[in-house]
Every structure is written in structure tokens, then in C-alpha cells.
């Protein structure tokens, strides 16, 4: 079941005009969140942060504001059925709220790590990277290419080959007793989980450009988003070689503890 324009629908389809900009151009804003304890108020759900980011994008684009109270009521209803929600807003203010389950192998991957592949292409930067728009074709194509080659995640690069973000999250690297994450100014999404980590970390975090000179310094690496929290990599394939990392590196657990502490406190 899902909500579209105020209506609860059971099925898997909606009706859109053939000239709807969301259909023609991917002109939508969306956010995906994990709902903890079936509550939008739980601090890890970060409901307000997801709404604020969506609001700011809609305001920037000059679109019609949706009915935020209705969106919250619909989202709260779906939390009784799904732990993950995707809230999409169209240029005319219509909302589409979908639910889904957590990945069945999430805990296993969080422990053992995943394999990633660097996708180098001058066209691999997302459209309007500071906004989470429905035009997600670039990450979609990169992830499909990585999966076709036997990897679970893709890492996007800029025209100079510097690492930016994964197809689904923000990057984190541990080097020289410090955690690093790429600068927003390089063209990456200001992820909600990224902000949680930066605001709540009791250890050093630096934002930098992940150039070819920086990559050999990395001791441990992971990516984050609001659904998976922290996901370490055990392998990353570049054009030149295979890089191996320890998904059980002590620094990875320190990163995970930011989320674990919320579980304990709540």
C-alpha cells in the first residue's frame, strides 16, 4: 500500500498525465528514511531533517509546496507497515509515499562488508548533486554496471578521477587516526546520516578532496545513508588494481557506535 495525492492505494501503480514533468524529466524531489521504533519522532528517524531538506529543494526550485501535515499523517500511517519510507514530491505539490522492508542481508553486510567498484566516466556526476531529485539515472547506471561486474556498490568520481560518493550514500575513510569525508563543494549530496555523524562524533572528522594521492592512505572505508547507517567495504576495484580493507577495523566500530549510542539512549 502507498499514498498518492492524499489517497491510500493498494497496488503498484498510479495514474500520471503523459506530460507530467515528473514522468518526462524526473522532476521530483524525494527522500528515503528509516523509521525507528515505528516513530517519526525517534531521533534516528530524523523526520524533521528529511522534511527540511525536501522543503529547501522545493523552495529553491520554486515549486508548489505540498501539504506537510498530510504528508506527516500519511507517513505515520505507513510506519505501522514498513520500516523504510520514500517520500516523493512533484512540482505541483502532489506527494507519493512508498514503503519497503529493510534489506534481508543488511546485518550480515554490516558485519562482513561489501565490494565496491570505481566507475570512472566524465558524465558520472549526479544532476544537481546538492538536491535529491528524481533524476537518478547516473547512480542507477553506475550501480547496474557495478552489479553486472559482480560488485554490490558503485563509487562515482569527478572528471579528475577524485572519489565523490557511492550510488546510494556518502563516503567515509579512516587515515592517519582521523575520519575523512568528501567536501560538499565537490558535488555530493548532503546526506542526513552524514550530518548525524558529523554532529555527534566525539572524534576528529575532516572534509577533503579524495584525489589519487589520498586514496593510498586509507586504512578503512565505509559509506552511509539513512537506511543502512554504516556499511564498510572489504574490497574496492579501481581501474588499476583491487584494494582490500578490513571491515572489522576498530575505527569502523567507532563510526558505528554513533548510531548504537542512539539505540541505547532511546
Features:
single chain; 266 residues; alpha+beta; D-amino Acid Aminotransferase, Chain A, domain 1; D-amino Acid Aminotransferase, Chain A, domain 2; 7 helices; 28% helix; 27% strand; globular
Kindly describe this structure.
With 266 residues, this protein is of the alpha+beta class. The chain has two domains: 2-100, D-amino Acid Aminotransferase, Chain A, domain 1 (2-Layer Sandwich), CATH 3.30.470; 106-265, D-amino Acid Aminotransferase, Chain A, domain 2. Helix content is 28%, strand content 27%. It has seven helices and 14 strands. The protein has helices at 21-25, 47-61, 68-78, 106-112, 137-148, 192-200, 250-265, and strands at residues 2-4, 7-9, 29-34, 84-89, 95-100, 114-119, 153-157, 163-166, 170-175, 178-182, 205-208, 220-225, 229-237, 242-244. Strands 6, 7, 8, 9, 10, 11, 12, 13 and 14 form a nine-stranded mixed β-sheet that branches. A five-stranded antiparallel β-sheet has the order 2-1-5-4-3, covered by helices on one side. A hairpin with a 3-residue loop joins strand 12 and strand 13 (229-237).
Strand content: 25-35%
> What's the CATH architecture of the largest domain?
Alpha-Beta Barrel
Count of the domains: 2
Q: Strand-and-helix sequence, N→C?
A: EEHEHHEEHEHEEEEHEEEEH
Main sheet specs: 9 strands, mixed
Treating each run of at least 4 consecutive H or I residues as one helix, how many helices?
7
* Top CATH class of the largest domain: Alpha Beta
Instruction: Name the helicity range.
Output: 25-40%
Low-confidence stretches: none
Distance between the termini: 29 Å
Looking at CATH, the homologous superfamily of the largest domain is D-amino Acid Aminotransferase, subunit A, domain 2
- Give the total of beta strands: 14
The computed structural class is alpha+beta
CATH fold description of the largest domain:
D-amino Acid Aminotransferase, Chain A, domain 2
